[in-house]
């Protein structure tokens, strides 16, 4: 009879290709569980609070001046009133560095106007009034034709845009500034 040189599966288990101490395993599992618990807590808090961006609506806009010189320089003066609404039930909003301007067919026709920083509580509304002005602002050569055509029709469509930074307030905790974004 010939001798069998095959080794049993029990022999393979004794090789210990991966050598992890029981202490290292416990430390790894504890650390992983801790990190996952923190992430789950943050996710649950976010789902409960679910902060949403403020809503803006234009209440009034009065155009006092909109003139174009022969050298394609625009002078404009527009009085606007915006309504800012915080739709959140449990989250307040700090408004920082808000810049408002008017544009016509994608072209900015006033300079940025700053709104002073303010705080808006939960489910609160604020009226923001500002004058948007531009003196000697260079515009596209076709601007005069476009405005003249729309004035003949009797309708001039302006866009009022606001960019700024927001901070969220939940209880006594205030978030860091979010990057500048259209609000």
Automatic annotation (TrEMBL):
Membrane topology: Single-pass membrane protein
InterPro entries the UniProt entry points to: LEA_2, NDR1-like
Keywords tagged on the record: Membrane, Transmembrane, Transmembrane helix
Location(s) in or outside the cell: Membrane
Domain Late embryogenesis abundant protein LEA-2 subgroup: 82-176
Pfam families from the UniProt entry: LEA_2 (PF03168)
The protein, known as: Late embryogenesis abundant protein LEA-2 subgroup domain-containing protein
Source organism phylogeny: Eukaryota, Viridiplantae, Streptophyta, Embryophyta, Tracheophyta
